[in-house]
């Protein structure tokens, strides 16, 4: 099975837009207060976090595409479940461990782990549902 690069690019953009929805519209005030209490300086250049989000979202979608290829043919629901599970099992556990030592707090942990788990679920559904053309 081949990598569907168009699906990966779409997943990247969708995760980026989902980040705006999650961290601005849905949980913006809660996230901002949790971030300010954990790290009051927030001093990166305005464009930098967005560039990082796009680059890392691309690699996240690529990695998830590889996992789904190794798994074999799956439908969108199963792809969503696999993405969500990997988000919780890998990102969630490591983030929670890091947050326990750094003192970032439970609120920021729930927001960040929730975003990645749901975002990977969305990416998994797209990747599993979008069938690449046979070459």
Tell me what the structure shows:
The protein is an all-alpha fold. The chain has helices at 5-26, 28-38, 48-71, 76-102, 106-129. The protein has one domain (5-37, 55-129). Helices cover 80% and strands 0% of the residues. α4 (76-102) runs antiparallel to α5 (106-129). The radius of gyration is 16 Å and the shape is globular. The termini are close together. The relative contact order is 0.21.
Q: What is the count of distinct domains?
A: 1
By DSSP, the count of extended strands is 0
Measured as a percent range, the helix fraction is over 70%
Q: What would you report as the Rg, rounded to the nearest angstrom?
A: 16 Å
Overall 3D geometry?
globular
Task: Quote the distance from N terminus to C terminus.
Answer: 10 Å
Q: List the uncertain runs.
A: none
Q: Helix/strand/pairing class, anyone?
A: mainly alpha
Percent range for β-strand residues: under 5%
Element string (H = helix, E = strand): HHHHH
Largest sheet: none
Round the mean pLDDT to the nearest integer and report it.
Answer: 89
**Given the structure, what is the number of helices?**
5
Short description:
This protein is mostly helical and 135 residues long. The chain has 5 helices and no strands.
Structure characteristics:
single chain; 135 residues; mainly alpha
Write the SSE topology.
Layout: H1 5-26, H2 28-38, H3 48-71, H4 76-102, H5 106-129
Helix pairs in contact: 1-2, 1-3, 1-5, 3-5, 4-5
